[in-house]
Amino acid sequence: MLDAYISGWKRAFDYSGRSTRGDYWWYFLANFIVALLLGLAAKLVSQLSTLQTLYAIAAIVPGIPLCVRRLRDAGKGWPWIFITLVPIIGAIWLIVLLVMPSVPG
Predict the structure, then answer these.
(1) Cβ-contact 66, 27 below 8 angstroms
(2) Which pLDDT belongs to residue 35?
(3) Residue 24 phi, psi dihedral angles, 5° rounding
(4) Tens-place pLDDT, residues 84-94
(5) Contact between 26 and 4 (Cβ < 8 Å)
(6) What is the pTM of this model?
(7) How many CB atoms lie within 10 A of CB 21?
């Protein structure tokens, strides 16, 4: 999990290549845990709420390229990321695309 998290941040501006299901979901889980811990810490120490907000904004930077690489690995093009603009069903559809198995090639 830690390797996927570090790799996600190292490849934050890399839109080429592919990311496996494991890479994507381990990064997602590690990112969720870090955000949760920052949120809990911010409840205890109010000055940490700024750090929590900055982390939430910064996490978008590696998240988008990782999603694009994961869609490419599932055999879809990068424009599929915009399916989330469709209300309600779009987010569900993107999750389905992200859990699809890797396509060879």
Answers:
(1) yes
(2) 96
(3) -65, -50
(4) 999 999 999 99
(5) yes
(6) 0.89
(7) 15
- CA torsion 97-71-78-76 (nearest 10°) is -70
Q: At what angle do helices 89-99 and 60-73 cross, to 10 degrees?
A: 60
**For residue 24, how far is the Cα from the chain centroid?**
7
Using CA atoms, how far apart are residues 75 and 69, in angstroms rounded to an integer? Answer: 10
Residue with tokens 């399916």: 83
Q: What is the rounded average pLDDT of the residues 5-21?
A: 95
Q: Which two tokens stand for residue 78?
A: 């990068």
CA distances from 86 to 30, 92, 97 (A): 27, 10, 15
Q: Grade residue 105 by pLDDT with cuts at 50, 70 and 90.
A: confident
Asked if 35 and 52 count as a contact pair (C-beta separation under 8 A), the reply is yes
Per DSSP, the residues of 82-95 read GGGGSTTHHHHHHH
**What percent of the chain has a predicted confidence (pLDDT) above 90?**
95
**Amino acid at site 37:** L
pLDDT, mean of residues 17-24 = 94
